[in-house]
Write a structure and sequence with these properties.
Elements lengths: L1 H27 L1 H10 L5 H15 L2 H7 L5 E9 L7 H16 L1 E9 L3 H10 L6 E3 L5 H6 L16 H5 L1 H12 L3 E2 L2 E2 L1 E3 L6 E9 H7 L13 E3 L3 H14 L4 E4 L4 H4 L30 H16 L13 H6 L3 E8 L7 E2 L2 E7 L3 E3 L8 E4 L6 H13 L1 H9 L6 E3 L5 E3 L29 H11 L1 E2 L13 H19 L5 H15 L1 H19 L1
Parallel strand pairs: 1-2, 1-3, 8-12, 9-10, 13-17
Antiparallel strand pairs: 3-14, 4-5, 6-14, 7-10, 7-12, 7-13, 11-12, 15-16
Helix pairs in contact: 1-3, 5-16, 9-15, 10-11, 18-19
Length: 540
C-alpha cells in the first residue's frame, strides 16, 4: 500500500516537469529528426516519437528539474538524537542550514532531536501517529526494526522517470560512501538506509573514565595507566574489571560504573548478527555458525563479571531505572566511568569539568551491522520523497552543512585555530557531542586536541579492524516477525536485571533462556542461519 501511494505521489509531482521537458526537447531535436527522416523514409511516426521521448529522458536533469518545479519552499523534518536531548542553540544553527539549502534546493528543515533514553518509544509513537518525519537516523530504533514496522521507505523506489530515487537524486551519497558501504543497509535485498562517514569499527571491551579518579585508583591496583595516549590499551576485560574495582576503592561515595544495554556484546567476542542478540557468531565473527548467545560460555562469563562488579559495589542500585545520560551523570560528579567503544578520538576533551580517558581491553572489530546498521533513513511519513532525498544528498555533499551539524555556528559556538582545527566552547550551548552522526564527518573540521590527520587515522582504523565474516549482512525479521516481537518482549523483561548484575547468574540465565525459547528464539536462530548461508553464497 505504501509503495502504491509513494508511486502515485511521485507521478503527480513529475507530471509538470515531464510536459515541460518534452516541450523543450521538440525544438532542440528538430534538425536530427529531419536528417533521420531523409535517410530512412521507412521510419514510422510512432518510432520517431518513442525515440524523441527516450532521448529527452536521457538528457533531462531530473534533479535540477525537481528544484525548478518546487515553487514553494518545502518544509522537512530531520530526526536524530543526542544523549541529553536537543542542544540549546539549535534554532540559530538551523537558520544557517536553511541559508544554505533554501537558495540551492528551496528546502528548509526542522531539526527534531530526541533524548536517547526515550528514543525508541518516541519514534514508535511518532510513526504510529503518522507524524511527519522525512529523514531519521536509525540508532535507537534500529534498521531491521524500522523495516519490520514499516517505518522506512525503499531508497531505490521508482523515481517516476525510469530510474531510482538514490540514483537520480543522491549521486553525492553514492560518491561519498560507495556502493560497497551503501549495500550494507539493505534488508531482504531492499535498500532502506545510507551509512555515514564515521568509525566503521569498535574498540571492544572499552570504558570511559574520569582521569582524576583513575589517578587515585593507582594506589589500589598493580596496573599503571598510560596518560600520554588517548586510549590506554590493556590486555583484556579482566584488566577493565580490576580498574573499575580500584576506582570504587578510591571513590566509594559515587557510582563507579553505569552499565549499558550494549554491554553484553561490547564486552564479549561475538558478532550480534544483524544487530540483535537473538543468534550470534562467536570468535569475532570468524565462525559462520549462528548460536544461541544466552547458552554460550562468553555470555555466562560476562554475566558473572557484572554480578561480581555489582556485589563489589561498583554499580548503582538505581541502574535499572535511571534513564539519565551517562555524560550528564558524570558532569554532575555522580559517575566515575561508563561503557563506550574505542576509536581514534574517543576521549579528546572533557565531560563537563572532568578530563576523561578511554581504556580498551579488546581488539578493534567490525561486526555485521557496524556499517549498515547505523544509517540515515527516509520515514514513510515524508511529505515529499524527492525533496527528502535531495536534502539527504546535500547533507552528504556540503562541508558547510556538516560543520554546522558538528560544531554549530563559527564565531559563536567554535573558532578555528592556526592549524584549522575547531576550538569548541566546552561550556557552549551547542556542544552536543554527536559529531559522529554527521553524514560526511570527514568533510568537517577536526576538533582541537586531535592530530590534523585524524580523518586519515580513521581510514587506517576502519581498514585495520578485525572484520566479521558476516560484515554487511542484515537480517530480515519479516519471516519470524511474530516470534521476534515475542522474544524481544521477554528479553526486555530480563535483560537489565541479568546483564547489569542484579540477578544470580546460576538461575536467572536459564530462566530467561527458557522463556525466550518458548517465545520462538530457536526459530529466529534457524531463520538467521538460513539467511546468512544464502548471503554468504552470494559473496563468492
Amino acid at each position: 500500500m505504501k509503495k502504491r501511494v509513494f508511486a502515485a505521489l511521485l507521478a503527480a509531482m513529475s507530471t509538470a516537469a515531464l510536459f515541460s521537458a518534452c516541450n523543450s526537447g521538440d525544438s532542440g531535436s528538430s534538425s536530427s529528426e529531419s536528417s533521420a527522416s531523409e535517410s530512412s523514409v521507412s521510419t514510422s511516426s510512432a518510432e520517431s516519437s518513442a525515440s524523441e521521448s527516450a532521448e529527452t529522458s536521457e538528457e533531462t536533469d531530473w534533479a535540477a528539474q525537481a528544484i525548478a518545479d518546487r515553487t514553494e519552499t518545502e518544509h522537512l523534518v530531520v530526526n536524530w538524537f543526542a544523549w541529553a536531548g536537543s542542544p540549546e542553540g539549535m534554532d540559530r544553527v538551523v537558520a544557517e542550514m536553511n541559508a544554505l539549502t533554501v537558495p540551492e534546493l528551496n528546502i528548509e528543515v526542522e531539526m527534531q532531536v530526541t533524548d536517547f533514553a526515550q528514543r525508541s518509544q518516541s519514534l514508535t509513537l511518532a510513526f504510529a501517529g503518522g507524524e511527519q518525519i522525512d529523514l531519521y537516523f536509525s540508532t535507537g530504533l534500529g534498521l531491521t526494526q524500522s523495516v519490520q514496522n514499516g517505518y522506512a521507505l525503499d531508497l531505490e523506489d521508482d523515481d517516476g522517470h525510469g530510474g531510482s530515487l538514490i540514483e537520480t537524486y543522491g549521486q553525492d551519497i553514492i560518491e561519498t560512501m560507495g556502493w560497497d558501504n551503501i549495500n550494507t543497509s539493505r534488508v531482504g535485498g531492499v535498500l532502506y538506509g545510507t551509512p555515514n562517514e564515521r568509525d566503521l569499527a569498535q574498540g571492544r571491551n572499552s570504558i570511559m573514565v574520569r582521569k582524576d579518579i583513575l589517578k587515585e585508583a593507582e594506589a589500589y591496583m598493580d596496573l599503571t595507566p598510560d596518560y600520554d595516549q588517548i586510549i590506554w590499551k590493556v590486555e583484556s576485560l579482566d584488566d577493565i574489571v580490576t580498574i573499575l574495582k580500584a576506582m570504587h576503592d578510591a571513590a566509594p561515595d559515587i557510582t563507579t560504573y553505569q552499565p549499558s544495554t550494549m554491554n553484553a556484546t561490547g564486552w564479549t567476542n561475538v558478532d550480534n548478527l544483524g544487530g540483535d542478540s537473538f543468534g550470534v557468531l562467536e570468535d569475532w565473527g570468524q565462525s559462520t555458525t549462528v548460536v544461541n548467545f544466552f547458552e554460550t560460555d562468553v555470555y555466562k562469563e560476562y554475566v558473572q563479571t557484572m554480578y561480581d562488579l555489582n556485589q563489589y559495589g561498583c554499580i548503582s542500585p538505581n541502574a535499572l531505572t535511571d534513564t539519565t545520560a551517562d555524560s550528564s551523570n558524570m558532569m554532575a560528579g555522580a559517575l566515575a566511568a561508563f561503557f563506550t567503544s574505542g576509536k581514534p578520538d574517543i576521549a579528546v576533551g572533557k565531560v563537563g569539568d572532568y578530563e576523561v580517558m578511554a581504556i580498551q581491553g579488546g581488539p578493534d572489530f567490525t561486526s555485521s551491522s557496524q556499517i549498515g546498521g547505523m544509517c540515515w533513513m527516509m520515514g514513510y511519513t515524508t511529505v515529499d520523497p524527492v525533496a527528502a532525498m535531495q536534502y539527504l544528498n546535500f547533507m552528504y555533499a556540503s562541508p558547510e552543512w556538516n560543520n554546522l551539524f558538528m560544531w554549530g555556528v563559527e564565531g559563536t559556538d567554535y573558532t578555528l585555530d592556526s592549524d584549522g582545527l575547531a576550538v569548541v566552547d566546552e561550556n557552549g550551548t551547542f556542544n552536543h557531542g554527536m559529531q559522529w552522526l554527521a553524514p560526511s564527518q570527514f568533510k568537517g573540521y577536526v576538533k582541537e586536541g586531535n592530530p590534523v590527520d585524524l580523518w586519515e587515522q580513521y581510514e587506517v582504523f576502519n581498514e585495520g579492524s578485525t572484520k566479521s565474516l558476516a560484515s554487511g549482512f542484515t537480517f530480515d525479521t519479516a519471516p519470524v516477525s511474530t516470534e521476534y516481537t515475542a522474544v524481544t518482549n521477554v528479553y526486555n523483561q530480563y535483560q537489565k536485571s541479568i546483564e547489569f548484575g542484579f540477578s544470580d547468574p546460576e538461575s536467572s540465565i536459564d530462566e530467561m533462556n527458557a522463556a525466550m525459547k518458548t517465545a520462538g528464539l530457536d526459530k529466529i536462530i534457524a531463520e538467521k542461519q538460513s539467511q546468512l548461508d544464502a548471503w554468504l553464497a552470494l559473496q563468492d
